């Protein structure tokens, strides 16, 4: 038996893209909220992992979609250790 994978993903019935790039940037209002939160929340362990509040804030920002300007950052019930995006969550209202 031979495992066969078709490396050509071309289909005539749907549009194709070879590369897709996405870039997100924080608005000044969102940056103020998330970086302000990181300044007040960062622990010694976080300083070892993320080096500074901007990196910690950026990791959290890129993990959660921001759908409104009213955001709250809550502790996540899923985990009490690990990366910042597992310990906290952004809630938009």
Note the main attributes of this structure:
4 helices, alpha+beta, two-stranded antiparallel ribbon, elongated, 39% helix, 93 residues
Structure description:
By secondary structure, this protein is an alpha+beta fold. The protein is built from four helices and two strands, in the order H-H-H-E-H-E. The chain has a two-stranded antiparallel sheet with strand order 1-2. The protein is elongated and about 55 Å long.
- Average pLDDT rating: 81
Strand order of the largest sheet: 1-2
- Share of helix among residues? 25-40%
Output the helix-strand order: HHHEHE
Bulk shape: elongated
Structural class category:
alpha+beta
Round the Cα radius of gyration to an integer and report it: 19 Å
Largest beta-sheet details: 2 strands, antiparallel
Count of separate DSSP helical elements:
4
Beta-strand portion reads 5-15%
The parts where pLDDT drops under 50 for at least 5 residues are none
Gap between N and C termini: 54 Å
Query: What's the total count of β strands?
Result: 2
